[in-house]
Amino acid sequence: MRSPTRTPLQGLPERVEVYEVGPRDGLQNESAVVPVEVKAELVRRLVGAGLRTVELTSFVHPRWVPQLADAEQLLDLLGPFDGDLLAGVRAPVLVPNARGLERALARGAREVAVFVSATETFAQRNLGRSRADALAMAADVVGPARERGLDVRGYVSMCFGDPWEGDVDVAAVVDTVVALAEQGCTQLSLGDTIGVATPGQVVALLDALDAAGLGRDRLAVHFHDTYGQALSNTLVALQQGVTTVDASAGGLGGCPFAMSATGNLATEDLVWQLHGLGIDTGVDLPALVATSAWLGERIGRAPASRAVTALT
Ligand code: MG
């Protein structure tokens, strides 16, 4: 299989952590119902392809996300967090509230993730509560989880644009990210949920967060490719010193807020760029491509990844 010519570029990190969101963020936004055995096989193949961070599922009420109603069965199939498959893997699970945290703790999760919108309208329309209430609900998870020694990732959605509000106020984004950091989140993921950001916006937000005391070492970026900007935005984030990048195998997960089949940045497209830049990821690209091709057949949709299309 073809691989990119390695030509390093100055000013980039030596190693980047690829944070794989396909089994959770990807499958949550696919209309196809994926059998739990297929999900388990997906996680096994992703780990087998060298991914060292895989977000597994969400302990959300099945009424809200029926696609992930099988969280417990999936963990049954994957084995314990300290078992053969997951021991060396950063394997967070999303938890929306204190009940979700209980379920995650009962399973021995070492890391959980919480979710807050940077904009008031999205908080109200998508989650049915104000941003302040959403932050209070996150606090019910973050504090107790940190007391038990868990790492906690805070997702902030709509950091660069909102489907209803349009432009997003950078100060409101900074306030939300800082609030989650002060609650104790160990990593903050900046989400471009509708994929509208362009590189200057990314640098402006990173600068504003830096001025608020939040350094790049606690940040991750979560770009969507709706407007074809995900890799450009990723590259400037790396130049700014960010070293954790969220991506979804095969570009799993369409964009629910835009008439587009393209949502999450595809992990293969990201890995192609990183390896071309001489940046180590630990990912076996042919094995990852084969995984996305295999899953595409299972869910009846060709992967929305340029690299997968080119390499298969
Ligand atoms: Mg996403």
Computed structural class: alpha/beta
Determine the CATH topology. TIM Barrel
Tertiary shape = globular
Name of the CATH architecture: Alpha-Beta Barrel
Order of helices and strands: EHHHEHEHHEHEHEHEHHH
Q: Radius of gyration in whole Å, from Cα?
A: 18 Å
In total, the number of strands is: 7
What profile does the largest beta sheet have?
5 strands, parallel
Name the CATH class. Alpha Beta
Bound molecules: magnesium ion
List its salient traits.
single chain; 312 residues; alpha/beta; TIM Barrel; globular; binds magnesium ion
What would you say this structure looks like, in words?
There is one protein chain. The protein has 312 residues and is of the alpha/beta class. Helix 4 links the parallel strand 2 (93-94) and strand 3 (111-117). Helix content is 42%, strand content 11%. It has helices spanning 22-28, 36-48, 71-78, 98-106, 120-127, 131-147, 170-183, 199-211, 230-239, 267-276, 285-299, 306-311; strands spanning 17-20, 93-94, 111-117, 151-157, 187-192, 219-223, 244-247. It contains 12 helices and 7 strands. Helix 4 packs parallel to helix 6 (131-147), helix 7 (170-183) crosses helix 8 and helix 8 runs parallel beside helix 9 (230-239). The protein is globular and about 50 Å long. A 5-stranded parallel beta sheet has the order 2-3-4-5-6. Strands 1-7 form a two-stranded parallel ribbon. The mean pLDDT is 94. The protein has a single domain, classed as Alpha-Beta Barrel (TIM Barrel), CATH 3.20.20. Bound molecules: magnesium ion. Magnesium ion binds at residues 25, 222, 224, 253, 264.
